[in-house]
Predict the structure.
Amino acid sequence: KAGVTQTPRYLIKTRGQQVTLSCSPISGHRSVSWYQQTPGQGLQFLFEYFSETQRNKGNFPGRFSGRQFSNSRSEMNVSTLELGDSALYLCASSWGQGPPDTQYFGPGTRLTVL
Amino acid sequence: ELKVEQNPLFLSMQEGKNYTIYCNYSTTSDRLYWYRQDPGKSLESLFVLLSNGAVKQEGRLMASLDTKARLSTLHITAAVHDLSATYFCAVDWDRDDKIIFGKGTRLHILP
């Protein structure tokens, strides 16, 4: 069974630009969560989607948005990039709605903002 | 708001020794997770603990949960170099199902 895939794996952008990251969950999984990982703040929850609906959102500004498609693939978008958005962005998938028994994480997209 | 605290944040230990990582959380929770992250890699799920008194073991790692004390421990028995990694605990906040991570414990096992 293929794991969670994320594209692109690495991305370099400049301040003010926008970026879209993609996540394909494990086949059959309908829940996708996104996390931001930085050395200073650690792992922080961004949002969670289930069946194309956002179930939960973390404490991030409105520049961070996401969506989920009917095939469960998810994208997150960051507009007007700031230097502080440089981070590893991880997505995780799980089977159902509600607190998962296990989340399976993708390899991450490392975003560098110059 | 739910806070998750791990200690120690950094641990250097000799092979063959035992040690314990602690994870405290500040409010009630449905479940507690332990993950491992190798440098430059993603997170790997180790354990999920669902109820008070739950204990799970895999190889040299054993995790336990005390929901009354709001404490989970990850015990390492007879450490080997391959266990060097960063270990995270994470708690599902039952008020809104957000999963909150601790800062991680960076474990360095010396040969």
About this structure: The radius of gyration of chain B is 13 Å. The interface with chain A takes residues 30-31, 33, 35, 41-45, 48, 88, 90, 92, 94, 96-104 of chain B (CB under 8 Å).
